[in-house]
């Protein structure tokens, strides 16, 4: 997690939107402030279980990552194939 001291130390951060989807339908939207898209993807995958618990019966199967301009950077499975079922 990015701390205030990291932000003040000059580390560049970016704003991302994470849109959780089930069958292409929006279940929840959240924001992430991290240094890179790769870190935002990893953080979202770690949060997948918590998001699913908040939406019983509507557990997301994918998430869309967007940058601050609204550009879609990709749609990703909530878990990587190597960890599926784990």
Task: Summarize the helices and strands and which ones pair or pack.
Layout: H1 4-8, E1 14-22, E2 25-34, H2 37-54, E3 62-67, E4 72-77
Antiparallel strand pairs: 1-2, 1-3, 3-4
Short description:
The protein is 27% helix and 36% strand. It is of the alpha+beta class.
Low-pLDDT segments: none
The strands making up the biggest β-sheet line up spatially as 2-1-3-4
Q: What is the domain tally?
A: 1
Query: Strand percentage, roughly?
Result: 35-45%
Characterise the protein shown here.
It is a single chain. With 86 residues, this protein is of the alpha+beta class. It has one domain (4-83). The protein contains 2 helices and 4 strands. The protein has helices at residues 4-8, 37-54; strands at residues 14-22, 25-34, 62-67, 72-77. It has a 4-stranded antiparallel β-sheet with strand order 2-1-3-4, covered by helices on one side. Strand 3 and strand 4 (72-77) form a beta hairpin. It starts with a helix and ends in a 9-residue tail after the last strand.
Provide tags for this entry.
2 helices; globular; 86 residues; alpha+beta; 36% strand; 4-stranded antiparallel beta sheet; single chain
């Amino acid at each position: 997690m990015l701390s205030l001291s990291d932000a003040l130390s000059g580390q560049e951060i970016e704003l991302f939107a994470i849109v959780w989807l089930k069958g292409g339908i929006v279940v929840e939207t959240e924001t992430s402030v991290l240094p890179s898209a790769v870190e935002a993807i990893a953080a979202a995958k770690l949060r997948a279980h918590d998001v699913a618990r908040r939406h019983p019966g509507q557990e997301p199967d994918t998430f869309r990552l967007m940058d601050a301009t609204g550009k879609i950077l990709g749609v990703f499975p909530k878990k990587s194939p190597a960890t599926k079922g784990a």
